[in-house]
């Protein structure tokens, strides 16, 4: 056999041996993969893993040609006694060091996990420990040395969250004397359970799952030294019904303390930044907030708390705050939340009242809110102060320059709103309100307020006021204002402009008390110097209109007290008394002309159905006048009485444009009643007397003087007659605007005039009969007439029972402005021989 042939045969032999070995090896590997290694081999692998602190058991250990060893149904335990299970996997791949394995040594380098499901108890060794179930676990665990493991790219899914874990952990030899605290373990179990329940409140779109990256490094023998860092991101995340976008969370977890170094999200284009921590054992934590999100919406949807009820922010709200919290639990189902910080909000409203900006420091304690250093800017004013909301009551102490309309959301009474609406302000107005009080948070119209106010340059009921101040106590039922001072602005008041009076007047009052339910106002101790009409216009505009007819040249001194009521019918208890004393002149329109009154005093009493002007007195026409007047506004009915003494005819003549009345005085009285401005409704009675005047200079009797002249001429003359008829008097009655008199009389030493008749002011006509009896030298003037009058004399004697001489009768008819006087046959007087015409007149005595 040649050498070459031997070589060929050896090559074939060795090839067969190699093939046989390969086939045997493959067969052995297949067998080992299918049947698994021996128990001794499995125990050796488990023992090797103990060197890394991994205490495991598994049902089946097989060999994979490419991947290495595969352990099936592997269970992880806390200690080598393998009594407390901490994790369970369906299968893992174990990579060993092949070079050492060839030398007979087993060295595990890596454990690979593919599509595994891991159930990890959070508290090891406890049957009731909450468990985290992680699905689709993929990655590798590197075993670098005894009691040391690390991972790279280990991923899985927890409740839809993609979780990535990188860790580097090692363990020293466990301390033999370490005994876990049973109570601490029990608390951790409760805390973890509550934390996992809170996680159920979160949800997100299936197509946009959040991602959680976890980094763990440290000595497991010293849990306090283990660093657990995490980063959580989500494009969309919902807590209950509150959506968050662009969520970013970064922090760490050390034992039971979870820390949020950074938590940011946006909501409706507003951003929130938060740092916080959570003690899982205590279920509590702290936080720091910097946010522009809508805090009311956030508090309601996230924490179930209604805060700042009634506020509605349309603009930006910025909050910077620190706080602490205690999460709800089975034993305490309510959130315990405490916050302190600052808030700034623009363009918001409170129950319809618009506010431009709000700045405040605040403190929140489980529904109790304390706002300090409040600054509220409104286009018409500002409010500063503090507010406490506690036990459904709002307590406040503020200083405000806001107008009354801003407070309308707090006011239930329509009458109070109506009254406050009468306040008008402009660019020159100034309001300084110091207010303290409480408000019912459930019903903001249930409130009370007390304090003081100073207001300048405003008007009420169209009455300009330059200054007002007072102390007040307000509720939704009543309003009491005390120690009031008010200065009225008369710059544009027509009477001041006309008569050049002072530009202001000041009033003071002890109190004004409003009772909205009874619809009345009680005024106490109001007094000062002011035009009366503007004063009354504050409370009773209709009465003020009437007082405007009394044209005061100068503000009188007034006093006022009583009750003003705006109730109707029998509930109206109006009784207001206004007294006034005027040292200046008053112009009052009487019979279509203004008469001047001076040193006028009076008292106005306003009752539910009438206005009474009592104790009225005044100097006028160089004389004196007094009386009273009662008016019923509902039907314009009136009644009254005036008496006057020694009014000079010269002044009356000047007022009414009369001529010839240059001397004499008038004295008399008139008691009357009527309705409206119609003369036909005027009824009454009175008397009037002329002294030291000229009867025939009176326009009414002026035309009569020519008839008298024809009787006394030529032996007498008109001058003598006018000098004789200087006094007259009469009583009169008025019925439906018609004046009746039956005893007009004028007597001098030589002449007697008597008269009777009527004057109709409706039609402005008259019918008067005047009789004249004259004696002495004036009697001679009738001699030429006696022959003609003999038949009449006989008739006179028959009628009168005595011889009479010098008797004449005249009758006036026609228009009052131009009466027609003529001779008339002498008729017997109504009282016969007792008529004053037959009396011997006293010397220069006025008959009244």
Automatic annotation (TrEMBL):
Region (Disordered): 828-848
InterPro entries: AsmA-related
GO biological process per UniProt: regulation of protein targeting to membrane
The keyword Oxidoreductase is assigned to this record: no
Transmembrane segments: 12-32
Name by which UniProt lists this protein: Uncharacterized protein
Ranges annotated as biased composition (Basic and acidic residues): 830-848
Keyword terms: Membrane, Transmembrane, Transmembrane helix
GO CC field: plasma membrane
PANTHER family associated with the record: DUF748 DOMAIN-CONTAINING PROTEIN
